[in-house]
Design brief:
21% of the residues lie in helices and 28% in strands. With 326 residues, the protein is α+β, with helices and mostly antiparallel strands.
Length: 326
């Protein structure tokens, strides 16, 4: 049967990346042909398992790590976390790191710094702004308009997340990572992140570590331009992407979050704990992405106003580009 969608004229034909992005935004959860599934009994010919780096900490010594042919320095760590640990990281993102002491969020510009979003949600308060929370920045706060990090716009970085990101970078590609900034993305089941490059950091040699929690997502990793057709990978709760080597500067994004895919193990792990059960229920309809990176080659001295968490942080000025919530 012929397609009812007319082809695009040559002058407006989609690039390799955009074509894949459009296709997967429209695809159903049951129609993911061409998406690499690390849980499949047989892996795609373009993906291979690689050894854990000798610099890995003990808790990651037996991690399952995968590389993609032709994508230099790119690694996926197949969920090294227990279900209970996934819930704890999600709880920290919702209940701690979205607080003004740690972060700047997309809500700040129009609503001012918001305290107690997660607590208000748990109490069932009407008008809670938690559903409108789409991102929070930690450490150095990214300037969306100027596309840069200002050393003066800085909050304390959560030490557990810094250690976690450094461990994952060491295990996946034997690289050192001094975690200085993170963007925590909060996705609804209909949200997407357009293809982009993380090229604003002054230091580009350290890898980016990206942790997924909650709903599955289709993740695209492309090349140096959008003309390069990307590889599509299904990321599940607990999976970790590490962009090192040349892939550090490649286009990537999330065209599709897959509703109804949160693992049942989360609910089992939450049994008997009211707060973790609330986190689990939230993750059953959402995805959290913890995206950690190093900004500068040398550690910067903290400004005087930043002796306490959250000090000296300027409010965000607008939404990040290419974020879609439909």
């Amino acid at each position: 049967m012929e397609s009812t969608v007319p082809p695009e004229p040559p002058s407006t034909a989609a690039s390799g990346y955009r074509a894949a992005e459009r296709r997967f935004r429209r695809a159903s959860t049951s129609d993911l042909h061409g998406v690499i599934d690390l849980c499949a009994s047989e892996l795609a010919s373009t993906i291979r398992r690689v050894p854990v780096a000798p610099t890995a900490p003990a808790w990651l010594a037996s991690a399952q790590i995968f590389a993609v042919d032709g994508v230099d320095g790119f690694r996926v760590v197949r969920c090294p976390f227990s279900a209970a640990a996934q819930l704890e990281w999600a709880r920290a993102a919702l209940g701690e790191w979205a607080e003004p002491e740690w972060s700047v969020t997309n809500l700040d510009l129009h609503h001012g710094p918001q305290r107690g979003l997660w607590a208000a949600h748990r109490r069932g308060e009407r008008g809670s702004l938690l559903p409108k929370l789409s991102w929070a920045t930690l450490g150095y706060h990214y300037g969306w308009s100027e596309r840069a990090y200002d050393p003066a716009r800085r909050s304390a970085f959560p030490p557990p997340l810094a250690r976690l990101a450094a461990d994952l970078a060491a295990a996946a590609c034997g690289a050192e990572l001094r975690a200085e900034a993170a963007i925590v993305n909060f996705y609804g089941a209909s949200a997407a992140m357009g293809g982009h490059r993380d090229d604003a950091e002054a230091y580009q040699d350290a890898p980016i570590v990206s942790i997924s929690l909650g709903l599955d997502a289709v993740y695209l990793i492309g090349g140096e331009t959008k003309e390069v057709a990307p590889t599509a990978i299904r990321l599940r709760s607990g999976d970790v992407v590490v962009q090192g080597g040349r892939s550090r500067g490649y286009y990537h994004g999330v065209p599709r979050v897959l509703a109804g895919t949160a693992p049942p193990s989360l609910r089992r792990a939450a049994a008997g704990d009211a707060e973790l059960l609330a986190v689990c229920e939230w993750l059953e309809g959402h995805r959290i992405n913890l995206n950690v990176r190093q900004c500068f080659e040398e550690a910067q001295e903290a400004a005087t106003a930043e002796t306490e968490p959250g000090g000296g942080a300027a409010p965000a000025d607008r939404e990040p580009p290419s974020r879609v919530d439909s």
